[in-house]
Amino acid sequence: MSRKKRWADYKENEIFSGVHIPRNMFVFVRCDGRRFHRVVGSAGFRKPFDKAFMGLMVKSALSVFKTGFNPILAYLFSDEANFLFKQLPFNGRVEKIDSVIASTLSSAFTLELFRKKGFEGNISFDSRIVLIDKKDIIGYLDWRQGECWRNHNNSYAYHALIGKGKTPREASRTLRNLKFTNLHELVLKLSGLNLCKTPEWQRKGVLIYWERYYKEGFNPVRKEPVKALRRKLMVNWSPPFFSSDEGKRFLEELTKL
Ligand SMILES: Nc1nc2c(ncn2[C@@H]2O[C@H](COP(=O)(O)OP(=O)(O)OP(=O)(O)O)[C@@H](O)[C@H]2O)c(=O)[nH]1
Ligand SMILES: [Mg+2]
Question: Could you tell me the pTM of the whole model?
Answer without folding.
Answer: 0.94
